[in-house]
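=== RUN LOG ===
request id: a7f3
mode: sequence -> structure
chains: 1
length: 79
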Amino acid sequence: MGRWDADGDGAVTYPELVNSVTVIGVDVELDEWVTANQTVARGQVTLAGGNKQTVVLAAPVDGYVYAIHVGLGDVIESR
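=== RESULT ===
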């Protein structure tokens, strides 16, 4: 089976991002096959009052992991 990206954009985004997210887990490896809605990374946001909440970043479509652009502790500030 060849490599492919069903929608061609290769992106995993977190469209609900309002503040910054700190990466607390990367749950996939390069060349791994993922399915739509599978968790690929986890992040932590700080809410009002200092409360922390874990959020998941999910694969938008089935496909292979071509690249991982974040690591543990990285801060994501854009969608």
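=== NOTES ===
Strands lie at 21-26, 33-34, 39-46, 52-58, 63-64, 75-76.
The CA atoms of residues 26 and 69 lie 10 Å apart.
=== END ===
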